[in-house]
Amino acid sequence: MLALLISAVAGYFSWRTLTMAPMRHAMPVGTTPVDRPPGPEDYPVAYAKEPLRVQVGCAAVIFLDLDEPRADVQEQVADLRYDSRCGGESPRLSLGAGAASGSQRSNADADAAGCLRSIRTSPLGPGADVEVKRGTALCVLTAGAPAVLALVEIIDVGGTGTAGLRATSWKVLD
Asked: Which one, of 78, 76, 53, lies nearest residue 63 by Cα?
């Protein structure tokens, strides 16, 4: 009886060793799978510090495309909408139909990974807009194929309807 019991216990441990062996080879002890944060090589620069000058009259609207950068494009492809105001009101920027998402930043000190993190953690909601004032920045992910990630910095605000912007763009690779 004792021999039968010892044989059963030995069989159990042999079976357990065999079934656990593939798991030990698949993942070494002490390591866990972790998603690697994207590095700079994951976001090649499409264009850097490209100037965009906005000049419209009082209470006018102009649309901006960030895929190439261009001002005065059709509303259907625009990534940003610039609304000029009259009197003492500041112009406003909001996401256009060509933008998938965006986020406001207090400054332009961001790389592609920082912009994506900003969009993920503090996105602009539907209907939200941003006051056009010097030093403000926006991160915008376009809805185009391929998608483009852009950082737009407001570098100058002039009289009614004028502003100087600077855009940097990265290609988003899948």
From this structure: 78
Could you identify the residue written with the tokens 């194929």?
145
Q: Which residues contact 128 (CB under 8 A, 6 or more apart)?
A: 94, 95
Which tens digit of pLDDT belongs to each residue from 21-37? 544 444 444 444 445 44
Q: Comparing C-alpha atoms, which of 52, 93, 96 is closest to residue 77? A: 96
Give the CA distances from residue 29 to residues 21, 33, 35, 169, 173, in Å, rounded to whole numbers and listed in that order: 12, 11, 18, 41, 33
pLDDT tens figures, 119-167: 999 999 988 999 999 999 999 999 988 899 999 999 999 887 889 999 9
> Three-class SS of residue 92?
strand
